[in-house]
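Sequence design from tokenized structure. All designs in this work follow the same two-part layout: the structure record, then the generated sequence. An example of the structure record is given first.
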């Protein structure tokens, strides 16, 4: 992970091209109004604090990036005696490790194999599946 923020001498800093800028110098209309040590923070400083919080969580392995959201349409490849085809179900539930679709669950590892976020990805995988069956 390449961090964008750092904390140094009780100042929140943002890194840009190997230079560090104190956030108050970048986002305030009036630098005198922004004094984080006294609890007066501009919107830019607050945004940097939030970014730092997310970067900290990511470093600790506590930030979970979900592959989709409830209500999203996904594209799944199903096979039966008539062949393979693509279905377009809606995501019913998302948990920390699984996605529930049509009363079935899929692990996050299934994305890119049998579950896809776009129809184009599903069609390409279906073509590859059909080619491998022909061999």
């Amino acid at each position: 992970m390449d961090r964008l923020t750092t904390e140094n001498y009780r100042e929140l800093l943002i890194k840009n091209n190997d230079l560090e800028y104190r956030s108050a110098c970048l986002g305030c209309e009036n630098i005198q109004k922004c004094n984080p040590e006294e609890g007066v923070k501009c919107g830019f400083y607050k945004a940097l604090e939030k970014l730092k919080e997310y970067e900290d969580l990511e470093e600790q392995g506590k930030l979970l990036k979900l592959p989709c959201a409830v209500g999203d349409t996904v594209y799944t490849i199903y096979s039966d005696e008539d062949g393979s085809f693509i279905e377009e179900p809606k995501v019913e539930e998302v948990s920390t490790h699984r996605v529930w679709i049509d009363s079935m669950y899929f692990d996050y590892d299934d994305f890119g194999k049998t579950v896809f976020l776009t129809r184009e990805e599903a069609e390409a995988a279906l073509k590859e599946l059909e080619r491998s069956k022909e061999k």
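The CA atoms of residues 69 and 126 lie 24 Å apart. We note this feature because it recurs in several other targets discussed in the main text.
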